[in-house]
Design goal:
Blueprint: H1 8-15, H2 19-26, H3 34-47, H4 53-60, E1 65-70, H5 76-89, E2 95-100, H6 105-117, E3 122-125, H7 134-142, E4 147-150, E5 160-164, H8 166-179, E6 185-189, H9 195-210, E7 220-222, H10 227-239, E8 246-249, H11 252-264, E9 274-279, E10 292-295, H12 298-314, E11 322-325, E12 328-330
Parallel strand pairs: 1-2, 1-3, 3-4, 4-5, 5-11, 6-7, 6-8, 8-9, 9-10
Antiparallel strand pairs: 10-12
Helix pairs in contact: 1-2, 5-12, 8-9, 10-11
């Protein structure tokens, strides 16, 4: 038979101390002598006392938990951001509850409602769609639960967010391809419902304009987001006999899918087709050839989002904050002969 959990009342009887004294000692109250505090903590350890978190949370009005909602967990992107979030929140006594929206705005909606039911103290989120759940975000913020967005952000909303400069870094990456002699550059584009997708397309277009290369709509493929989408996009290019000498993909995932397909068709990378992407996950160095990419500081993105969250949880009136992190162009073997 399972034994009953040890309570503060049990510690009180064991130590011949009042319940209030034991309670204050466990709370590290400075008005309790150190000798008494040590005695209570030792008894708690020996008897196996564990605080009733529900009772503690009800008393403080906080759950010391933060919800994190990610679009997917297949690639290392989310896990690298989570490392940064946990690095900041764990030492402050916060638990992290993770939910995956699976690139589905309806699932994202349900996940946010679930976090609300869990009474989390805040939500850190990377969106599926920049417009669809905006009313919910406003409702959640108005209810007193702070939101911090990272990477993918809502359109035209005054919110706290952590991003990189997608437009500028995409421009630089496409310029790199142009500088290596490429003129027929394909852009594997994500859905326009994602804010970054729009910005990276703008960077691609600006690089072509700057170098007086005509914009060809047939070279912009609405690819999707997965490895399979990258493979399908590469197959589309070959089946339709579209002339191209390089690819700039929305993410490493798309780029790797396309690169694998091209190599299966005996098309050499980078000799025949150079490939570059945006994300900078650990995947970029695990493939052959290693992938040229815009490397986002993913752990720092998580740390920055968590630091903003701590400020907003401590002070509900703390103003919204935007942090733009620097990303690094990593030139590797997939784009250089």
């Amino acid at each position: 038979m399972k034994s009953k959990p040890v309570t503060i009342k049990d510690l009180s009887k064991h130590l011949f101390l009042s319940i209030s004294t034991v309670s204050r000692a466990l709370a590290d109250n400075k008005n309790i002598r150190q000798e008494t505090r040590d005695k209570v903590l030792e008894a708690a350890r020996v008897l196996g006392y564990k605080p009733n978190l529900t009772a503690v949370n009800l008393k403080s009005g906080r759950t010391f938990s933060v919800g994190v909602i990610v679009p997917e967990m297949i690639t290392p992107f989310a896990s690298q951001v989570l490392e940064g979030i946990q690095e900041v929140l764990y030492p402050k006594g916060y638990r992290v509850i993770v939910a995956q929206s699976d690139e589905n705005p309806e699932t994202e909606y349900k996940n946010i409602r679930l976090m609300e039911q869990f009474q989390v103290d805040g939500i850190i989120i990377c969106l599926c769609d920049q417009t669809l759940n905006q009313e919910l975000y406003l409702e959640i913020q108005d209810s007193g639960i702070p939101l911090v967005f990272y990477d993918r952000i809502p359109k035209a909303m005054d919110v706290s967010k952590v991003v990189v400069n997608d437009y500028t870094k995409s421009l630089f990456m496409v310029e790199h391809l142009i500088e290596t002699g490429r003129k027929r550059i394909v852009h594997l584009k994500a859905p326009s419902s994602i804010y970054n997708s729009v910005e990276r397309l703008k960077g691609y277009q600006k690089a072509l304009e700057k170098h007086k290369i005509p914009y060809d709509p047939s070279l912009v493929i609405n690819a999707g987001l997965t490895f399979e989408d990258g493979m399908r996009a590469a197959a589309h290019l070959l089946e339709n006999k579209i002339d191209f000498d390089s690819i700039f993909a929305f993410t490493d995932t798309l780029a790797i899918g396309a690169m694998n397909y091209l190599r299966e068709q005996n098309i050499t990378v980078p000799e025949q087709v150079a490939i570059a992407s945006f994300s900078g996950t650990k995947l970029s160095t695990l493939v052959y050839p290693q992938l040229t990419t815009v490397e986002q500081p993913l752990e720092q993105m998580g740390r920055s989002a968590a630091e903003i969250m701590l400020k907003k949880m401590a002070d509900k009136s703390f103003p919204n904050e935007t942090i733009v992190l620097d990303a690094t162009i990593k030139i590797r073997a997939s784009s250089v002969k």
